[in-house]
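Work Package 4 report. The design task specified in the project plan requires that, given a folded chain encoded as structure tokens, an amino acid be chosen for each position. We show below one input record used in the internal validation round.
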């Protein structure tokens, strides 16, 4: 028996201004994710999430979280964006997705990472795209984390080759 470890690298920017100087296209995507929070429907959690996916053709598809009184019927911002991208541009790879959030109740100063279900959807989106999808996370303000592909966020992923 032996212990093993996995290590994930990711990039940290102090804020969106530092990111804009180094990666202007990703900073723009992040801005679009912030704008997407304006369309969220969150009467229960008061937690507004926005996502913006940039496709390889340059199109940006936005998504937001949408809640429902029957809780499981709602959907996260990331999947809203990725499913909308699939519905409108089924053959166009997704290069990157930015995720942000703000709360009506508390400050969100830490980067908001996607939930497990969204990560699993990102895995399959990557598989279809045949390119890694950059994942850009920020709260309402503060540091920005950038992951160069879903596997850095979700090791030991479930793959279709297992089926
Ligand atoms: Zn999610």
């Amino acid at each position: 028996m032996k212990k093993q470890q996995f290590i994930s690298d990711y990039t940290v920017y102090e804020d969106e201004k530092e990111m804009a100087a180094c990666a202007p296209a990703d900073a723009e995507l992040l801005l679009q994710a912030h704008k997407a929070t304006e369309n969220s429907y969150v009467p229960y959690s008061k937690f507004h999430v926005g996502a913006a996916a940039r496709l390889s053709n340059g199109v940006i598809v936005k998504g937001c979280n949408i809640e429902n009184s029957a809780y499981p019927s709602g959907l996260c911002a990331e999947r809203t964006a990725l499913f909308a991208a699939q519905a409108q541009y089924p053959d166009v790879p997704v290069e990157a997705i930015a995720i942000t959030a703000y709360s009506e109740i508390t400050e969100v100063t830490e980067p908001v990472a996607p939930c497990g279900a969204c990560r699993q959807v990102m895995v399959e989106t990557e598989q279809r795209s045949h390119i890694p999808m950059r994942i850009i996370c920020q709260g309402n303000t503060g540091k920005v984390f950038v992951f160069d592909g879903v596997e850095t966020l979700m090791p030991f992923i479930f793959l279709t080759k297992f089926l």
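The chain is about 30% helix and 25% strand. Validation will be extended to a larger panel in the next phase.
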